[in-house]
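Sample entry (313 residues):
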Amino acid sequence: MKNIMDNLIEKIKECNNPTVIGVDTRYELVPECVRNKYAKDINGMCAAMLEYSKALIDATYDIIPAVKLQSAYFEMYGIEGIKLYKEMIDYCKQKGMIVMADVKRGDIGSTSSGYSKAYLGKNMINEKEEGIFDVDFATVNPYMGSDCVMPFVEDCKKYDKGIFVLVKTSNKSSGELQDLKLENGKTVYEEVAGLVNTWGDELIGENGYSSVSSVVGATYPDQLKRLRQQMPHSYFLIPGYGAQGGKADDIALGFDKNGLGGIVNATRSLMCAYKSDLWKDKFSEEEYAKATRAEAIRMRDELNNAIKNYINA
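Predicted structure, serialized as tokens:
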């Protein structure tokens, strides 16, 4: 039975590109040529961030299948930031992209149910069910246990949505908890991986992947390879490429023999490509969107070559 992960896989194949562009609306990342158009109050700042973010999407929506919108960098601007978040979600959907809300929610069951309804499910409004943020995927923090995850799983079933559950994250201190050994000899992240397999085993789609899948960082390639073997039905959202140091050859370890199984996130390396050593002499600040597109194509080709070499080795 077809699921939301099959939709993502179709978009990846259509674009021949296993990447997702991350959008962090931090005002300091917005080029001065955009900032200077607007007032420095909250409304002007949000308008500048909206112009910048939309321009990046306009430059990449036809070559990148998905976008990951980090909620923290919208929420930090209060009510206007939340409005901006919703506007960006709707804009990316209009462009035909798969939309991921990077919210990392996870709380006791009743509270998780509220979070899930906000991003994946629907609420009764004017006596009918309506979606609120209504994204395709959300990220979920499972470290309070099954009852914090199951409301999201149930909404995945009911509304054909998806989640990426944090299993082995890319940040430097992740091992302080995730790498701890349990009495059964497994690490904490391996135990979580087993739970994700269980949570998702009723939601496997036509391509063999569940709509309940995993976040596994590019910065720990040995764990990435091990988890690919342990989690054959889990698609990996792979952060850590580029600015965090994840390499294409390492990332390829998270893919299967068909070249599927992972979608690689890049945020700063795409958003700020015009400032990078590779592109700063080729594109002006005003051409920031062109630089982002050029970097997206370079990243796509680098990843595809690494994945091809890996599966053909």
